[in-house]
Design goal:
It contains 16 helices and two strands. The protein is mainly alpha-helical. Helix 1 packs across helix 4 and helix 14 packs antiparallel against helix 15.
């Protein structure tokens, strides 16, 4: 398997290792405790693939070659200069510019996952302001990237954590990844002011790219507060987000950083609601209400994992 394919073998090995750490949860410092290692059952997974890595099995897990290929090709497509590193402008092209510039800034600065290529020192303020003024004079975007990002790079291993978290925001590691990105002051609480910082750009993008009603921040926060139900009003913690149903998590995060996916949630939710309604109508009145509820729960549980669904496209 991959014999004589030096570059692919190295990248595949890196992918497997990073996915093991990603699946273990809370391995942000590159170290893993024995309890975390046991939790992901690496020995059991190795035993299941003794006869070879089968890309067609229903649950290929951490060693999936197909999933590696998707990760590697996604990185390769963004790496235009083929230096095996991404900069902020490369990440801007991800999914046709779906991510906001402000969240890209946080990702590239290593706020989601600590990176050895994050900026070590802040730039000279006067020089940064002068460059910003120069860009504005040339008609640059109102969301020019912070000049500190010029020194930031994303490696392939950093990209693995990013893409896994971006595609499936429901996993415990993904929830913490995006929480860390949104938590501007690192105090463990998402305040209205922090969320407003990210949503301001979303509103501007809606005005520029979309026709129709724009969801204002006050309305959005009322809806999200009803969904998340934080212990303290106006302050959302990681504990609050881990308590909500998995279907809510992507809606919450995408509202502040991924405009196209945020818009998709509304149509996808409507379709899912129709499917559940049809399921209930077929079952009632012959089936008890409790059994119908159980059928709905089983139906939702049977939906494909977002990452597997993406990798199989």
């Amino acid at each position: 398997f991959l014999e004589g394919q030096g570059q692919f073998l190295q990248s595949y090995t890196e992918t497997v290792v990073e996915r093991i750490f990603y699946a273990s949860g809370r391995s942000w410092d590159g170290k893993m405790q024995l309890s975390q290692f046991r939790k992901i059952n690496v020995a059991g997974i190795l035993g299941s693939i003794e006869d070879g890595i089968d890309v067609n099995i229903s649950n290929p897990g951490l060693f999936s070659y197909k999933h590696f290929y998707v990760l590697f090709c996604s990185f390769f497509e963004l790496d235009l200069n083929r230096d095996s590193m991404l900069d902020a402008r490369d990440l801007l092209r991800y999914f046709n510019g779906t991510l906001s510039r402000r969240i890209i800034s946080r990702i590239m600065m290593g706020k989601g996952k600590p990176s050895e290529h994050a900026p070590k020192r802040p730039p000279n303020d006067a020089k940064a302001k002068a460059k910003a003024e120069k860009r504005r004079a040339k008609g640059g975007s109102r969301y020019d990237l912070n000049v500190r990002l010029s020194d930031c790079r994303m490696t392939y291993t950093d990209f693995i954590w990013f893409l896994l978290s971006e595609i499936d925001k429901t996993s415990p590691t993904a929830v913490e990844y995006w929480f860390r990105c949104l938590d501007l002051d690192g105090d463990g609480v998402l305040s209205i002011y922090e969320l407003e910082y990210f949503y301001d750009e979303q509103i501007s993008r809606m005005e520029e790219e979309m026709a129709g009603d724009i969801i204002m921040l006050d309305d959005l926060m009322c809806q999200l507060s009803d969904l998340v139900r934080p212990e303290h009003e106006g302050m959302i913690t990681l504990k609050d987000l881990r308590r909500v149903p998995p279907t809510i998590i992507p809606v919450f995060f995408d509202a502040f950083m991924n405009l196209s996916r945020f818009v998709e949630h509304e149509s996808r939710t409507s379709c899912l609601q129709r499917q559940l309604a049809q399921l209930s109508m077929r079952a009632l009145p012959k089936t008890s209400f409790e059994d119908v509820i159980q059928m709905r729960i089983e139906f939702l549980a049977s939906l494909p994992n977002p990452w597997s669904e993406f990798a199989d496209l």
